[in-house]
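### Sample
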Amino acid sequence: MSERVTAQLVYERWTDPIAGDILEAADIDVIKLDLTAPTESNWAAMGAAHGYQVATRTDVAPVAQGEQWLVGPALVERCEQLLAVCSAGAGYDVIDVEACTRAGIAVCNNSGPGAEAVAEHALGFMLDLAKKITVADRALRSGSLGDRLGLRGSQLLGKTLGVVGLGAIGGRLVELCAPFGMEILAHDPYVDEATAQQRGVTLVELGELVERSDFVHLTCPLTAETRDLFGSEQFAAMKPSAFFITTARGAVHDEAALYDALITGAIAGAALDVFHEEPPRPDNPLLGLANVIATPHVAGITVEAARDIAVATATQWQVIFGGGMPPRLLNPDVWPLYCARFNEIFGFRPSAATALKKESHSR
């Protein structure tokens, strides 16, 4: 009988230590990718890896040649044993899905566990912009308060919210806005009318959404379809009193066009959790504007979300190496080739049924 192969999983970091605790009980060799270590040692680990929990773009940004640890064609070609790659959260723009599919590599994300955190953050952005909370705080601390009427804000009650992307985050934001009696418009080509009606939203084209909304919130993934989705045309169509909010990815919107819209008064303000370059440079022009509030891609980082994501991450890896279909598989077309490669390495074929019984790790 041939010796059983032990699954090897490389990760850069867990959002919470509970992921390591869960995987420690499984028959999986877990290896940490040290971004500060010599490149050769990291490539040695990656070359033997069957699974890779992908580092985020923000994590690798401070490291020289850090982009090499994102899953592009070069990494796929070099890591011949790689069977599956997973992103830390809902976003998966750090993974070249097409390159992975061609190579028989399953691509997964961790959508869902962080939705509450991001949706609450977006609601906080909306309230901050409408009530001018950060603007008032800055004026008070700088001694430039002047006439308080200059800080007169607005209310959410009865306003119109336009959501671009009606997934877990967008759907939860709709629920959170219910007490404000807002009209909700949504643009999402992957959502049908029945689902939209069930969530109490009206599906519209992007052009109509930007024209009618008092708040426009981007919460779609970064894909070939959504890259540069929001530019000068969309900002020009917005109301001068409207606010732009994004918790998506920086490359979904045009930063230069946004800056122009803000300084010319085409829109009233913006709240940004994502940028083209992360973390953004201190001299990023957007950070110098009084009508902009910003956070450094932390919308999904709460104590609760970090733990929930870690549990979902570890559980998904248990399913993968246990021979089940990943619960958040993004490229289902890969399944036949993936199964053949999995069988070649581990000596048995995966099943489309989830192999791991669900266990509760929640508080």
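Residues 303-321 form the longest helix (19 residues). This sample (3-phosphoglycerate dehydrogenase) is used throughout the tutorial notebook.
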